[in-house]
Amino acid sequence: MPARPAISVCMAAYNGALHIQEQLDSILAQLREGDEVVIVDDGSTDGTREWLGSLDDPRVKVHLNESNLGYVGNFEKALRLSRGEVVMLSDQDDVWLPGRVDALVSALDGAEAVASNFSYFEGTPRPIERLRLKDGTGGHRVRNLLRLWIGIIPYYGCAMAFRRSFVDVSLPFPSFLFETHDQWLAMLANVRGSMHHLERETLSRRLHESNTTPKSFRGLRPIVRSRWMLGKAFVVALGRRSA
Fold it and tell me: Is the pLDDT of residue 218 over 90?
């Protein structure tokens, strides 16, 4: 097989016993010796921890939190623990499509970050989940950042990949980041002028009531709070533009 960078897959787990095995199987089928899946469990009580403890694959590295960090902190911890040259985020309940790893690695040629499209199953997608990224639009920094702040561009962590150098710059996450770590990562990549959009679908998202993404209009106050948070994150990203 042709040489490729070592891959780290960072998965945040929490009460995912129902679907996590299917997701992990779809990931491991695309990994090689020397790659890794870093799974950080955030205090599951549904048997997920016991199942993780039964895994016998040297590529899977399990870490159990003593206290609940929340999904943003959990992903940040997984990123800190990862060691690969290319890092991919993963939810616990999706399914990776064949060829995902190679497609994302190839798309990182000349970029620090790549965001792809995805299909979906089981549930009904929200309007933003029907939006599509287009090849060749990753370099439209101002437009991408404006759409990100408004909330009309489909940047999802589970559909992204990053070079190690970018992960190092992205850490630590801003201390005030209470949601949408994926928006922070996409914002920073756009500010640094190193985002690539991949029109190809690389995974299928399982849509259900336990997804962390809001299912309906959240109300004016939460929306304003979120936009204010992203505004502050933009200032932090500017400070890391040339790091």
Answer: no
Q: Which helix (H) or strand (E) holds 60?
A: strand 60-64
53-94 per-position pLDDT tens digit: 999 999 999 999 999 999 999 999 999 999 999 999 999 999
Residue type, 143: R
Q: Taking a C-beta distance cutoff of 8 angstroms, is the pair 85, 164 a contact?
A: yes
Q: How is the chain split into domains, by residue range?
A: 7-239
CB within 8 A of 90, min separation 6: which ones?
A: 9, 10, 11, 23, 27, 37, 96, 158
* CATH code, 7-239: 3.90.550.10
Ordered strands of the 86-90 beta sheet:
60-64, 36-41, 7-13, 86-90, 160-163, 113-121, 195-206, 95-96
Q: Tell me how far apart the alpha carbons of residues 19 and 121 are, in angstroms, rounded to a whole number.
A: 13
